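Write out the 3D structure for:
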Amino acid sequence: MLITGGSTGIGAATALLAAQLGYAVAINYRKNKEAAQQVVATIREGGGKAIAVQADLAMPDQIQALFQTVDKEMGTLDVLVNNAALLEPQARFNALDYERLQRIFAVNVLGVFVCSQEACARMSTSKGGRGGSIINISSMAAKLGAPFEYIDYASTKGAMDTMTIGLAKEVATEGIRVNGIRPGIIQTDIHAKGGEPDRINRVKASVPMQRGGTADEVAEAILWLASDKASYVTGSIMDVSGGR
């Protein structure tokens, strides 16, 4: 399993759970080497196999190098979790400058496309692969729009949802399942990156379950989609949002 953005939050929780379930795990990170290495160390201490690979997913050549490293050190790729995403401080729509839009779309949309192309080239039974699963980590923001906060981020996740459905249909006969997860308000550091560390307490009243979710709860859904238990599930997007 290759998890992009796997050093913290949902990515790290997914890596740890995947290792417990017997996956060898490749963790991609952009800057937080220390956190990525800590996740790898935890997996290895438990008897699992894991590596951390640096790559900026806004750079196609670095994505290609990432997959080549996984080929060399981990062997056949069975699961890709497109988890890495860029979020910038909260802002109104008219304050979203062009350079910010370029940065966010480069990682959250173009990076996901290129990673998925690399994965399909390896997994497709039409190219000699043995099939596999791609899981795209979207956001409830794709449905809610994130007004006054992150319309740019929400829009990238909407694009990811559309790609999930279209790609699933293209590769359904090639042994590849493509699904998505839309996390809701989850207890990770993403809120601090947006400039409001305590955001969960402000918005949790809008969640029917009246609480934020955990990264572990999202990881459980990801690992179910990756497993044979979801063998007839493709082109689906699961909301993990407490009913929001």
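The two ends are 29 Å apart (CA to CA).
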